[in-house]
Amino acid sequence: MLEQIRSRTQTTLAKVILVIIIIPFALFGIDSYLSSVGSNIQIASVNDEPITSQEFQKTESQFIAQIKSQDESTDTKIFKTKGFKNAVLDKIVTSKLVNQEIKNSGFYISDNQVGTYIAGLPEFQRDGRFSQEQYDEILKINNLTPKEFDSSIRNTLGSQQVRDSLKKLVFTPKIKIQPLVNLAYQKRDVSIFELKQNAYKKEVDLSDAALNKVYEESKSSFVRPNQVKIEFIIYSVAGIVPNVKVSDDAVKNYFTNNINRYQAAQQRRAKHILFTLGPNMSDDEVNEIKTTALGVLKEIKENPKTFKKNAKKYSQDSESSKDGGDLGFFSRGDMTSAFENQVFKMSKNQISDLVRTEFGYHIIMLTDIKGEEVKFESVKNQIKGELLFNIALAEYGSNAEDFSNIVYEQSESLKKAADKFDLKIQDSEWLSFEDAKKFFNNEAFAQAIFDKGAIAEKKNIAAIEASPNNLVAARVIDYRTSSPKPFEEVKTIIKDFLVEAESQKLLIDAGIKLIDDVKLNPKVIDWIDQLVIDRVDRKGLSDSLINAIFKIENINLPAYSGLFDKNGEYVIVKLNKVVTEDVKDNDSIDTYYNDYIALIESEVEAAYILNLRNNADLNLKGSSFTSQ
Fold first, then answer.
1. Where are the alpha helices (DSSP H) in 218-348?
2. Higher pLDDT, 103 or 239
3. SS3 state at 11
4. What is residue 199's predicted lDDT score, i.e. its pLDDT?
5. Nearest in space to 615 (alpha carbons), one of 21, 88, 47
6. Other beta carbons less than 10 A from residue 569's beta carbon
7. What is the CATH architecture of 227-237+399-481?
8. What's the predicted TM-score (pTM) here?
9. CATH says 2-171+608-619 is which class?
């Protein structure tokens, strides 16, 4: 049973749809989307509860994001198929049916249950405790109100109550699955023999007559699509950069004016004594405070060990004074400018002169440095590159419209635009529509050059920003319609195809005949391997071969079977013996039992959902991708 389930989920689309089916009602799952969408065009309904196009699109986007996060290699074309869209719609329908049944059946989730569940979610934890600030921030990011989120969690907990209730319907004593466990751990004694496809390739007829026969029979497979040749120019930031100049002084000035950006990784620790200046103080009052500060500074410079004592006595920074003026580690940008500039040019254990900021006079001692200071020379080339790019980007931006206008107004040729912007006119090879899409990785460009007017008039197409900071102008210079490719052009392709297809057929025919022969005369085959395998210890055999071995009937032994392997081999298997014993290992029994129960629970849940669907009033005709 488990194998049958697995065998139905091997295609790429099946795997993607399976992901949709098994995605749990987790934080910000489907319910939060369903509870937060607004009104829109109705595409379906479930017991008169509408499903809107906006609702569908949001749910679809969520599933695509989740699937991509689990497997970035997923082919995005799958997301455009009817199968995927139907799976999304089915998930929405199921969610609505379950939530409706929760209400109808009187399942109750208290406010206390919702609050306890939310408080326990790790997404809202900070330092092991629920953080209201983090809760508010995450809901804001996901465009949810507390009421909407509470509703989604209530639905989630209600759905879980339904699942828990269904699970109580499933009970199977372990002793009942013993035969299945024994079967799962059954051992099979087999002998293996292999025929190689390469041995049959030399028997394939590769004469011109044979190749031409395939060509004539399959001409429709060798049709060359409509194609164009174009000439084009590219106006880009990358093309402008080589002509831009930036002086060393400009680079140095940029570094000085943006020092925070480059020193942000370094942290410094300092302590200070603050003598506060009020906004309405007279000059005499300021001078009096300054005199006091200078006296303290003199004492500290003569004996740095007195810094802590003086900080506690004089500093009006009430927090740091408790720790002898210690401010801890801080980065550039954390402190007021004058204070920070002083700290980041000091040496360790150095004591500053008086530093005035908007808060008053400071005496500063640098006590520690963490991280290396970034020197100008180490970032000089980086800064220069950024400045060059920014200047080129500005020039590109100011000239882009002029470039586009010239291309449009001088539509008979690209020469005027090429001369003005010092660009090279380039030619392409023959391009099909698919080739053209890949040429600049831009479908709009392909559509423009394959436009009937562009082909007939051979005028410049409008300039297209094929990618960021890259304007492309082109014109069609030649065109040829779709036609069968000549035999000589595809001869090699036909030869390779014929060798592969015909040798595979010869191999399989030879394998089938050999199986018939060995049944009559066992000595016909000199078996190369004799193995004892089970579904766990496969002895390195492929999944397909293991499946074939365990499908061989064991009524009359020895029994034989054959399998074409994708590696270019035909594998003949002789089943010598089958050993089925009572499995006593508790871990193995528990593992299989848990898998079995999980499978039954999923079948019960599926039956429950199917029953809800059968008894529901579903109107899915508004969704153009479904045939229901």
1. 237-240, 248-257, 259-263, 283-302, 307-314, 318-321, 337-343
2. 239
3. coil
4. 92
5. 47
6. 17
7. Roll (3.10)
8. 0.45
9. mainly alpha
